[in-house]
Amino acid sequence: METINAHAAFLCNYEVMQILQQLKDTTQKKHKREGSLATVTYETVHYLQDTECKNQSEQSIQKFLEAMKKFKLTKMEKLMMVNTPPRTELEIQLIVQESEERLSEEDVRSIIGIVNEIFPAIVT
């Protein structure tokens, strides 16, 4: 992925986790003076490590976004699918506005198949 300007883009959970891990590493090396920042960083990284982004990579996200181009989804819909990959038709209906008009049943099945192939479900 290209370099992300955190102030000018929507970030997926994977990107947030990467930025916070880098921030955590540099903060720990420099000073312990920013206790609340360290706490927020730690708690957020800890939370994100229990989500789908834990098993994602830049390559898998790029592959997913490339596969989604044919469905004419909005940037926000694709972002939500990266953050919370839909595994059922209901989840797609909740993510994609007017999904019944915009996606055929075959499209929905195809999206679920792509999600399951690129972002395998986390087994807990």
Automatic annotation (TrEMBL):
User: Membrane topology for this entry?
Assistant: Peripheral membrane protein
Cross-referenced Pfam families: RNA_pol_Rpb4 (PF03874)
Major subcellular location class = membrane
What are the annotated GO cellular component locations? plasma membrane; RNA polymerase III complex
Domain of life here? Answer: Eukaryota
Q: Which UniProt keywords apply?
A: Cell membrane, Membrane, Nucleus, Transcription
Q: Where in the cell is it found?
A: Cell membrane; Nucleus
| Stretches assigned to the RNA polymerase Rpb4/RPC9 core domain | 1-122
Which GO BP annotation is one of this protein's? transcription initiation at RNA polymerase III promoter
Oligomeric state and partners?
Component of the RNA polymerase III complex consisting of 17 subunits: a ten-subunit horseshoe-shaped catalytic core composed of POLR3A/RPC1, POLR3B/RPC2, POLR1C/RPAC1, POLR1D/RPAC2, POLR3K/RPC10, POLR2E/RPABC1, POLR2F/RPABC2, POLR2H/RPABC3, POLR2K/RPABC4 and POLR2L/RPABC5; a mobile stalk composed of two subunits POLR3H/RPC8 and CRCP/RPC9, protruding from the core and functioning primarily in transcription initiation; and additional subunits homologous to general transcription factors of the RNA polymerase II machinery, POLR3C/RPC3-POLR3F/RPC6-POLR3G/RPC7 heterotrimer required for transcription initiation and POLR3D/RPC4-POLR3E/RPC5 heterodimer involved in both transcription initiation and termination.
Function as written in the Swiss-Prot or TrEMBL entry: DNA-dependent RNA polymerase catalyzes the transcription of DNA into RNA using the four ribonucleoside triphosphates as substrates. Specific peripheric component of RNA polymerase III (Pol III) which synthesizes small non-coding RNAs including 5S rRNA, snRNAs, tRNAs and miRNAs from at least 500 distinct genomic loci. With POLR3H/RPC8 forms a mobile stalk that protrudes from Pol III core and functions primarily in transcription initiation. Pol III plays a key role in sensing and limiting infection by intracellular bacteria and DNA viruses.
The Swiss-Prot or TrEMBL record describes its family as follows:
Belongs to the eukaryotic RPC9 RNA polymerase subunit family.
Q: Which PANTHER family match?
A: CALCITONIN GENE-RELATED PEPTIDE-RECEPTOR COMPONENT PROTEIN, DNA-DIRECTED RNA POLYMERASE III SUBUNIT RPC9
UniProt-recorded name of the protein: DNA-directed RNA polymerase III subunit RPC9
